[in-house]
Design brief:
Blueprint lengths: L3 H15 L4 H13 L9 H4 L7 H7 L2 H10 L8 H7 L20 H16 L10 H10 L7 H12 L12
Helix pairs in contact: 1-2, 1-7, 2-6, 5-6, 6-7
Length: 176
């Protein structure tokens, strides 16, 4: 998990570049990536680094991090970009299966759709205390299978291109 936010920020910016966002919007995506998990400061480290499966209570605690990051830290921050919204909604999915609000489709801003998809790809591609990283093909299969349902189709196309051309480096060996 070390370096996760930085990798999400870098990949998000690259997605923004490839999707034609201007430099200012790219900077907003980068900052959103850096800050998206800031609410995890309220989660005990023993849960964040626990090897093995989380129990139901631990999982519910983890799922509070977007709301904590938004309400306790970023809600009143005066950014010229929707950084607080990206933090609050980065686990939302197009089909409403995400959290905390179960938003659907166009209720999700482009920035949220980008950051959420990047966060998934980065998380799958790196080692966690409870699992090994997925290999490149597993990541490509997962985002391809959920393209248009959970993940924005245009964002997925860009992520596939980034992964296949190795323009963004993931943890060493994770994407082989």
């Amino acid at each position: 998990m070390q370096g996760h936010e930085e990798r999400v920020a870098e990949i998000s910016r690259e997605v923004g570049v490839r999707m034609g966002l201007d430099k200012d919007e790219q900077l907003g995506l980068y900052l959103g990536g850096l800050l998206h998990d800031i609410g995890k400061v309220a989660i005990p480290e023993t849960i964040l680094t626990k090897p093995g499966d989380l129990d139901e209570i631990e999982w519910e605690m983890i799922k509070t991090h977007p709301v904590v990051g938004y309400n306790k830290i970023l809600k009143d921050a005066d950014f010229p970009w929707p950084v607080a919204e990206m933090t609050l909604h980065h686990h939302e999915r197009l089909d409403g299966s995400g959290y905390p609000d179960g938003l659907v489709g166009d209720e999700l801003s482009l920035e949220v759709r980008m950051l959420g998809s990047v966060d998934v790809v980065e998380a799958m591609s790196t080692r966690r205390p409870y699992r090994k990283p997925k290999i490149k093909q597993e990541v490509l299969d997962e985002i391809g299978k959920r393209k248009g349902t959970r993940y924005d189709p245009e964002v997925v196309e860009v992520l596939v291109e980034i992964i296949e051309t190795a323009k963004v480096e993931f943890d060493k060996g994770a994407m082989d």
